[in-house]
């Protein structure tokens, strides 16, 4: 029995880009990745595609998009085993009403069992019915499984007592493969227990060449992690001591941003420069690449210096009022930062 195992596509959502037009691209990326996963399944002639929860982002995906996904699965030459997780459980009735013949949706009422005796395998799984569960998935063993390989599909953590429906770690012995979803980082606990991770980056920590698990379960189990992501994250840190570093930073960034296959995250530390920031943004925008730019500023130190330098003028008066603003420390700092930028523009260099 050959299979592909994926989860956490969160179709309808995007990588959290700063700009709305980038988020529209990020949203599309996830559908392209879904299509690539289907293609991979066809190429690899798998018998099953495991979709282990959070395939959709229930509050962001449209009904037409759900239909599109189901139509794609309908045309696939393999069987899809689908269960819904904490981000798509509300779509249960909608999906159940439109379910293609070759898609099996695991019940959201009890642990569901699906036997494929011709391939000598039995699958267990359950869909979520709510956003969090303070219970542990348990399995008492079923009669009638003799001579069959047992596979568990589950959306939740392995072991651990969180509110996200973890699996009872003691039942590892009962299964030949445990296909988990939910945590976005791929984690191969052991060969027969795998958290596949998201196949397309969803936040700044989803690094690496993300993919899906391709496996074969017969006498033995073999699995392989196959990259499928549309884009991967590239991160670069720059330290700007003063204006004399600008030329080198721009040259380095220019040499780096060659490919649209990446999401570039630039982290700048040291002396802030509005001029450098604008120059970098213009460079990246011209190349049409997807990026984000963050300054790690030592704001308290900058504000302190500004207060000293601008005691008695308009800027000093603004800072005094902003510092007295009724909010938390982070809000006050952000307010000072925003005001300094508005009042000083490109001269806002620390
Ligand atoms: Mn989840």
Task: Please give a structural write-up.
The chain is α/β, with parallel strands linked by helices and 350 residues long. It has two domains: 2-227, Metallo-dependent phosphatases (Purple Acid Phosphatase, chain A, domain 2); 232-347, Rossmann fold. The protein is built from eight helices and 15 strands. Helix 3 links the parallel strand 3 and strand 4. The termini are far apart. Manganese (II) ion is lined by residues 53-54, 85-87, 155, 182.
Provide tags for this entry.
Purple Acid Phosphatase, chain A, domain 2; 6-stranded mixed beta sheet; 2 domains; binds manganese (II) ion; elongated; Metallo-depent_PP-like; Rossmann fold; 350 residues; alpha/beta; 8 helices; exonuclease
Record the SSE blueprint:
Blueprint: E1 2-6, H1 20-43, E2 48-52, H2 63-75, E3 79-83, H3 92-97, E4 103-105, E5 112-116, E6 121-125, E7 149-155, E8 177-181, E9 187-190, E10 193-195, E11 211-217, E12 221-227, E13 232-240, H4 246-256, E14 262-270, H5 274-287, E15 290-296, H6 299-309, H7 314-323, H8 329-344
Parallel strand pairs: 1-2, 2-3, 3-4, 6-7, 7-8, 8-10, 13-14, 14-15
Antiparallel strand pairs: 1-11, 5-6, 9-10, 11-12
Helix pairs in contact: 4-5, 6-7, 7-8
The chain binds manganese (II) ion.
Organism: Aedoeadaptatus acetigenes
Pfam families: Metallophos (PF00149)
GO molecular function: exonuclease activity
